[in-house]
Amino acid sequence: QMKRLHELGRAVEDKGLLDAEHESLVTMLPLRLMLVEAEQPSYEALYPQMLEYAVAQFPHLFASIHLELPPSPLPASSSSPHAERAGPLQVDVRPARVRDVFADIERDPATAILTLDALTRVEEKDVDKYGGSLLFTLLPRLLSLKDRRAACLFAELWERLFKRHPAPVAAKTVHALLYKPGLAYPKGSVQEKGEWAQWGWGEAAVASGGGAEDLLALHDSLIRDVLGVLAVGEQAALDPSLLHVLLKTLSFYQAGSEGLLLAQVEVGKAGKQSTEEKALEEQLATLLLTQQSAVIQLLLELCLRTLPPSASLPPPPHAAQRRSVLCQYIHQMFIRNPLLVKLVHFQRYDTRLIPVLVEEVPSMHTCVPFLPELLSTADQPTRGFAILLAAEVARKYPLQQTEGIVNVALQRMREAVDSDATELLKMTLPILPVVAAAFPRSGLPRSVSVTEQAVELLASVRTIKSTAGPGLTGAEER
After folding, report:
1. 25-34: pLDDT as tens digits
2. Which of 25, 292, 383, 387 is deepest in the core (most CB within 10 A)?
3. Angle at 452 between CA 446 and CA 453, to 5 degrees
């Protein structure tokens, strides 16, 4: 090992850098051991400059190893010439260089990942000066980058910025995703010189074609219409970390919108009678429910895109993680406003999402009280949706209460047999083995078991098939 270090050190001294012919030599070095030792406070390597040159020339060899190591905090202050450098690998984090590295991330992602990792180690007060580069240069480019590590590190830095300056960061995040201003300017462009170091509203926008007035207008419009946050495009929801950033921004604007509506109602109450005040409060509740249900319907559309197009195809990339992030957000919305659960289910959504939501949204058990009402609707598609939902909820929560609801669902299916509602039967027959397995014996007094009712239903379907032709062939096969 000493011989290899000396040979590499001589190469550095002779040429001032490492070229491609030395890459194989670098890969033979104990990189992980060197990096672990570099993390120690009393770091004194044999060739510290050689290690730094190696990282600069071959970042892809170090990126994955370095990110696996536990982080070490920076000293509170430093008088060294590398005061604007972070981490044991001495990555250059001067703002101008960071912006150029981010602009070049498609060509050289490894250097960008090492730089992002270094930024996670800078002091809290120093994160602000990288805000412009993170949001306007890096974020639009992450939408098309397949390497998840960069998005994970970006999300960590975004969280730190958001905690310090929630309103400006939220507005600038949506602005960057909508208009992608940083993509219009190449690496080193003078038009990207503004760093947004002052995280207020007073500084001109970076390469946005507008200034603080544009951002304030965007901010105000998003408070009045939170659905604009989800208008940034599906690309922002393809990575779990970026999706988390998007939903944090959405949550911020939802809270702002609710606060604005509450303030308007309080102003409207002034000098009004109690009956008029109650009417205003009811209008507010209706507005909030309508807005929140629209948000959930859009989130459900994103959730639907995490499912494979067909059983024979694999799911999209990061499908499980994205679905988990979306379902957790929906759960939080349901918990904050239980009336929302009923409204969303009476509006209905794609039936392929019913098993997903029942399994991954813990608050879906609150569907139980209104399921009998949903099962009693005259609309056939809504009734079919209700039967599928009742079966999944009963499978997840096999209780006496859910068994009673399953009995109602089976009665609706018997009514479909009597009325020859072929489409409803095709839609709902697959639930029979599910509910039979959930309730092999009846837990209700003087009640026929679900299994027996399922067998009788199948016999009835077989009878109407023999007289009505091949209309139920597909459903029977399933």
Report:
1. 666 666 556 6
2. 387
3. 85
